[in-house]
Amino acid sequence: MELEELSVGEKAAMLSGASEWDSRGNERAGIPSFVMSDGPHGVRRQLGEGDHLGLGASKPATCFPTAGTVANSWDPALAEAMGEALGREAHDLGVNVLLGPGLNIKRNPLCGRNFEYYSEDPIVAGRMAAGLIRGIQSNGVSACPKHFAVNSQELRRQASNSVIDERTMREIYLTGFEIAVREAAPMAIMTSYNEVNGVYAHENKHLLQNILRDEWGFDGMVVSDWGGSNSAVAAVKAGGSLEMPSPGYTSVRELEGAVKAGTLSEADLTARAGEVAKIARLTRTEGVGRNDLLKDDIAAAHHVVARRVAEGSAVLLKNDAAASDTDAVPVLPLKPGTRVAVVGDMAKTPRFQGSGSSKVNATSEENILDEFNAVADSTGVTVSGYAQGYDRQGTANQSLIDEAVALASSDSTDVVIAVVGLDERSESEGLDRSTMAIPRVQNDLVDALAATGKPVVVVLVAGSPVELPWFESVSAMLYIGLSGQAGASAAVRVLTGQVNPSGHLAETWPLRYNDCPSSGWYPAIGRDAIYREGPFIGYRYYETADVPVRFPFGYGLSYATFAYGNVTADETGVQFTVTNDSDVAGATVVQLYVAGPSRSGEGAAADAGAAAGVLRPVRELKGFVKVELAAHETTTVRIDFDRYTFRHFDVAANRWAMESGIWTLAVGSDAEHLPLVTPFAVAGDVDAAPADPALGHYLAGDVKHVTDAEMAVLFGREVIAPGKPTVFGVNDPISSWVDSRGFVARTIAKTLTKREAAVRQKTGAPDLNTLFILNMPPRAMSKMTQGMVDSAMVDAIVAIANGHTFRGIGGLIAGFFRNQSANKRTAKELNHD
To answer: Which Pfam families match (predicted)?
Structure first.
């Protein structure tokens, strides 16, 4: 039987899940159910019914470095190798659709989920994601890039409205997805929870139809984030294919009713069902569901892949000579005969991934202390001792610092390896960080170790930037991020010189949080998250506004040194030479930045105000290549131009445009160190048109002083954030009930808030279930309860929130029995009984 021959109800049933992780198939049409699983950096195949927050047991799988760490490799081929391993494990664990990668733009360093995202730059994010997607899908498994789109904070993530101007959205927040779709052809894509300019992402026709399908050519399945569907009917109209998890049969009835009433075209319903059926048919694999991943060589081989990815992603941030070193030789790599004191709780009890739905049950686990001991004979680097150094939960304990200082000061110690960073409470789905600082007890430890006079090498464990008050006092610093289950051995191999570090930062590290462009309005505590900084995020802001940073975008050191020369440009790209002028082999990331046409006609001016063209940052990354060179080797590198190099989005014309004029091409190792600069004449399709002077502070990137009037010019409309609601609706989060007039609703919200804080303090980890409930709007209850709650019952719950307690409870009880009866009728109809 063909899909088109199915009844309206049968097609509608295919557009929502059958369980937490399974789709609904249709036996009559030969369409099987398929399995979805979280998997940005490891397959989380849960047992039984499972849950979507990573709390339930899952089958062992390789835990690879997180996306925020992998991005520091700037190596799409390495991401592809990781994707091949991920896809193989997904296949063997019976997973058809792997929910990842996450490639939302890192708008602010405090986003709790930044460790799952690649970069502040869409070119890096898109190219790295494309590599991973190609690798995953080479196994006949669908990748599912997420969260589409403009999703930048965890607070109120299910009930937030991202308010953004069209040009910034297109150029910054959508371009990474565009690259992934065009270059890797993912079979599925996941929408985000939030609204985008007032329309939920899963029912946003502008995003899903006009841009994703019509402009980019995507022909796959669009799945909601779990509980992220608002209206099933609106989603089908807009291009949303599948809502997850199971909402029971409520959505089926809504879709049937809409078709019957003529408010929904059956053709749209059939098209969406066809997209779901396509995934079911394309990802059918033989022999899936094996449970012997640990019984063969796959786990061991993939552990090696995870180590290789971690090695390629480690970033050397500092490497000075020890004060006592008269030859001024850098501390790293550690020389044979060096005796190291290993200090830090995370050196013995590792943290290598974040919290939430991406958490993987790793097949093995390493720690830095054991790995140093394991290579002592082969490297000549020995461990003089270990000290915990700090309490993992941040409780002050001077005796731990004293013990570490005594070990560091000992005559048996030459160098101190201090492993510090963010704890498990700091980086999690559902929770944004409150500060860019690491725990004070760890800062106190590093200060005390540096005061001993011994060289201190900091190994930093964190999924996103942190403030470094002691940076000038330490000799060296290696950033390993959240480096996966093989991260410890990778770090030790870098420290001992078995691997030459080649990672470069995929995001800017500010000196302090207040330097961040959006620090004054992030995260948005109300309904509207207004992106008033426009395109000036990350390096685009720091370079344009001339704000000093700790590390510029793209920064990374090596045990080798590199020189650039002989730059030329032609109609199709730029070419130059790179020389390794050291005695050791190494790799570096060469980066191409462009600046728009200047008034002088002689290249980019020193500030944005002298630009002749539209508003834009002083420079933007447009290409990169990771180059490996033997000692004293020279190679010629070419970076080709592409559709993204010179374009900007013309909002008035609703199209991409390219300005004619003399542009500036700059090549180097990061956004600030660009030794090669050359002018280049671009023959575009529009003349350079100066930016509107009414943009005011935007012209110099000074977004912290932008006025509401200037923002209205950027957005093309007046933008006003609403105040607190006086009446709660189905899309206001449970957390907002703290302001309810009703005692019951107010008590529920306050109790949940206190419980989450208490659990986090007691266990050292976030209470993910409670956080999810607090961020959840009532309408999600009808999407997350497998049919136990329908929309009428949600209305009754909202009545309770608005102080109508008894009326709401009565409606809830009556609605429950009415819904149960309706579900039985629908199930009987679908089963043709």
So the answer is: Fn3-like, Glyco_hydro_3, Glyco_hydro_3_C
